[in-house]
Write a structure and sequence with these properties.
It is a single chain. The chain is built from three helices and no strands. The chain has 48 residues and is an all-alpha fold. The chain has a domain of 26 residues.
């Protein structure tokens, strides 16, 4: 569990992006456009 905290403290922006910290993402129409675009990119990479 320490590795999560160390990563979060060293890479705050990446941590927030990875875990959606501060982003309303629950429910249709509440997700920010940028997060939805990032999510699509990630899904495409995973599919490949």
């Amino acid at each position: 569990m320490d590795c999560y905290w160390k990563f979060a403290l060293k890479n705050g922006s990446y941590f927030k992006l990875m875990f959606g910290v501060g982003m309303p993402c629950c429910g249709e129409g509440k997700m920010k456009t940028e997060f939805g675009a990032l999510q699509e990119i990630i899904y495409e990479i995973i599919k490949k």
